[in-house]
Specification:
Length: 167
């Protein structure tokens, strides 16, 4: 029994996970924050590298501050990020912010005054618009673009999990 328990402890130490870990509760080894999680670009320009160091090749450059990204891995000062198209690479943590933003995915998505399809439509938002995420209910999120605020169906956004509730 001691040998089995010892082997289990070694296996846990090597993998960094527990034997009964829930995938939705995975934590980053560096920050202890949830993996995956959404962040946004702090900088106007961010290099996405093939690996977690400045010696790795730059695969592409993000040139849009506030763009939402999903952190899917951590290594030292580096975060492995994924964009809405599924492309991933490594960025230095100083280029990222914990401020939540979303990208509107559906063209001319209605921005409602309340989280209800029957409420007044305040505006229609073009696909690709980046907005600040203020709060989310089960099916709706409250977003802000400049001075304009309102509610959008969660399915029309990228940068928030389907089951995520934010207050």
């Amino acid at each position: 029994m001691k040998q089995i328990l010892g082997a289990l402890i070694v296996a846990i130490a090597l993998t960094g996970t527990s034997a009964v870990a829930d995938p939705s509760e995975e934590r980053g080894r560096v920050t202890n924050l949830p993996i995956p999680r959404f962040v946004s670009m702090k900088a106007e320009r961010g290099y996405v590298r093939r690996g977690p160091s400045q010696t790795n090749r730059i695969d592409w450059v993000f040139q849009r501050s506030d763009m939402p990204l999903q952190v899917v891995g951590e290594y030292g000062h580096w975060r492995q990020v994924r964009d809405r198209d599924g492309a991933s690479g490594w960025m230095h943590f100083m280029l990222l912010s914990g401020t939540r933003t979303v990208i509107v995915q559906e063209d001319l998505a209605p921005l409602h005054t309340r989280p209800d399809d029957r409420s007044d439509i305040r505006a229609r938002i073009e696909a690709g618009v980046v907005a600040s995420l203020r709060e989310c209910e089960i099916n709706w999120c409250n977003i802000r673009m400049g001075r304009t605020r309102g509610w959008v169906q969660k399915t029309q956004l990228w940068g928030v999990e389907a089951d995520e509730i934010l207050n």
